[in-house]
Amino acid sequence: MKKKFSVKHIAFTKEEQKKVIKALEKNDVKELKGDGKFKVIGSAEVVDRDGDVVVVSGIELDRYNKNPIVLFGHDYWSLPIGKTTDVYIDVIEGKNCLVFEGEFAPAEANPEAQKVRRLYDLGMLNTVSIGFITKERDAEKFDHITRSELLEISFVPVPANQEAVDIMKMKGVYDMYKELTVKSKNGKNKADDVKTTKVIKTKCDHTEQISGLQDEVKTLKQEVDNLVKKMEQLDKEKEKSLSDVIKANIK
């Protein structure tokens, strides 16, 4: 069987590509925050926007670890913008995730990497996407990719896997909300904290709602699968009954 190459990322339109390039060109790399490192979820074991579930325990890392490159927008012809220093599986918010830790290339090696880093530090580019080769799918659940080979990871504005985000920024939102909630209970929070709390709570609520809807869709899909199986079983029983009646009449 021919191996399928898959990039888990929504393709850009020409207009979107122009916007991204323009944003990169406008960013002055003189003022940089952070330490030039990142920690992101490369893939989470959920139904992604392509309708697939990539089983993270089945992602082969051996060849990738020999060339742990980080790209921008799955551009295989441009220079890498960084490298990963560690890749491992972790359970985050109840989901199996493939986590990547790494660092951006210095300006003297690739100036474009520092532009991506600035967007990352500013919170304007928080999502990533993996490129991989599909090697095996579950025989019964064909949307589950059970074995694959990782080729690279890219920073992208829009990922196919909605959970592929920056861990520290995601964690920071919840930690800030938790901290402000504690202040509010102690009666020590200021008016600004109240406003900030409302904004963060809204974001957290939306995240929880999305997660809840994903669970509902999964449950409904399972119910539909069960109904289909039940209908198939009824059809078989009906055919068998009809066959028994025909045989009885022939006798």
Could you describe the 3D structure shown?
The protein is of the alpha/beta class and 251 residues long. The chain has two domains: 4-165, no CATH class; 167-251. Helix content is 43%, strand content 25%. It has five helices and nine strands; from the N terminus they run E-H-E-E-E-H-E-E-E-H-E-E-H-H. It has helices at 14-26, 62-66, 111-121, 167-185, 191-250; strands at residues 4-7, 37-44, 53-54, 59-60, 69-72, 82-92, 95-104, 128-137, 144-155. Strands 1, 2, 3, 4, 5, 6, 7, 8 and 9 form a nine-stranded mixed β-sheet that branches. Mean pLDDT is 75; it is low at 1-13, 27-31, 171-178 and 188-192.
Keywords for this entry:
2 domains; nine-stranded mixed beta sheet; 5 helices; 9 strands
